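Notebook, bench 3.
Goal today: get a predicted structure for Laccase from Brassica carinata so we can plan the truncation constructs. The sequence was checked against the plasmid map this morning, with no discrepancies at the termini. Length recorded as 570 residues. Pasting the sequence as submitted so the record is complete.
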Amino acid sequence: MESLQRFSFVSFLALLAYFAFLASAELHVREFVIEPKPVKRLCRTHESITVNGQFPGPTLEVRNGDSLAITVINRARYNISIHWHGIRQLRNPWADGPEYITQCPIRPGQSYTYRFTIEDQEGTLWWHAHSRWLRATVYGALIIYPRLGSPYPFSMPKRDIPILLGEWWDRNPMDVLRQAQFTGAAANVSDAYTINGQPGDLYRCSRAETVRFPIFPGETVQLRVINAGMNQELFFSVANHQLTVVETDSAYTKPFTTNVIMIGPGQTTNVLLTANQRPGRYYMAARAYNSANAPFDNTTTTAIFEYVNAPTRRGRGRGQIAPVFPVLPGFNDTATATAFTNRLRYWKRAPVPLQVDENLFFTVGLGLTNCSNPNSPRCQGPNGTRFAASINNQSFVLPRRNSIMQAYYQGMPGIFTTDFPPVPPVQFDYTGNVSRGLWQPVKGTKAYKLKYRANVQIVLQDTSIVTTENHPMHLHGYQFYVVGSGFGNFNPRTDPARFNLYDPPERNTVGTPPGGWVAIRFVADNPGAWIMHCHIDSHLGWGLAMVFLVENGRGQLQSVQAPPLDLPRC
């Protein structure tokens, strides 16, 4: 009888805790109005696509366990969809956002409400358009705080500062894309990088709007750094200040200090900064890490950390003292980029799968499509070709009649096939001198099926076709563990022995070392259609993508929920 009473009391306490959790969770109801607004940068004003008239768009601040209902109203002239980058969207691919993958786009004059719940996630994520190049200006931060009463696994910072790194074109980004699609050549590189939407002191007509962050001596702040850039990995640093890395892609890390971080498109990195230097003004700056043999934007964006008690100049030329500039690596400093990523570790023992059910090997890289008339204005790539990109020689083509998820749910044939190859169709020296006969990929809309709760390992192997490069590969609907990486060709006999299966970093976007490989593992516990793609948007448009179809498990709680009634029509 006593044990029964004890059990009932414990159950009662558990029930109280559950209802307290429900009571603390909030529903955030917002409207995102997609509309053109005049935005002036680099001396010129452009009609840029914005959210609620803001560039960058509004920051969403929520807590683990909260729900969101965000109605996107499209008042622009382009089709659009919004992706909530890094949100797992458990059993709810309908809210993920990539056009023609989980939904058809929201047409001009139409709207769609994204409804989703934050489930066991906290940290820095972000949201952005997932329709062609609209994300050049349509993006913003998504900050997930711990549940009330749940502390950070590090000392609480005084305050948070979102740092959104972007790219700016001195013309309509959609026109830049349209020109590249017509010619088959690489798109023109950006004209500036930005910090929170502003280029900074080193660009024309930009000094007055340079972002400034006042800081008090001795205080510790958390910089939530997001690379929202379209096509470029970046080095980021703050002059004379150490950065303590505590999180990447909404996953806590073992803290370590560094002078510089490398962050790829789509990735987020949280760092703690303590104002322990002589009162003054200090630049934070970002510029390119360019691992490819390709043109890039070789400019530098800046913002200013200003101590509130910084001295001013006296006498003639009175005013603020000039900011101190940080030491940034060279644009091709792969050693520094690699040293940074190799230091990342999960903050405790990671629940990484130890056994593997699906062992996949994906080559990722560029390619060239031959033209019957190499002198055509539509064949302006190298030697009269058109640029392409692929995974396992399959260059992904978006469907147009229906989204893959809707076709899968409805059993509609003819939209996609499920024969994506688990390994390259031909083995070759991936990082060596590759025969020109292997440079042209095959176009198609192919998916790979995974059983529910399968343990999956993917080795992503860069190739030297056209050029080796760091490809930031993003997997929708999942976080994964980065268990190993290296340069050269992956060796399945010897390299797995060096895998870190204890505390590998957890990410949603990982770069392939240029001319190397990276191995990831995850459990396929989220049913639906989930795209994996390079987050360099030029490469995504060329076909560097594929789709996983994760089958339902048993019962309602392991199956995709029904689509919402307002899902955009195709």
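The chain has five helices and 34 strands. The first helix runs from residue 2 to 24.
Flagging this for group meeting.
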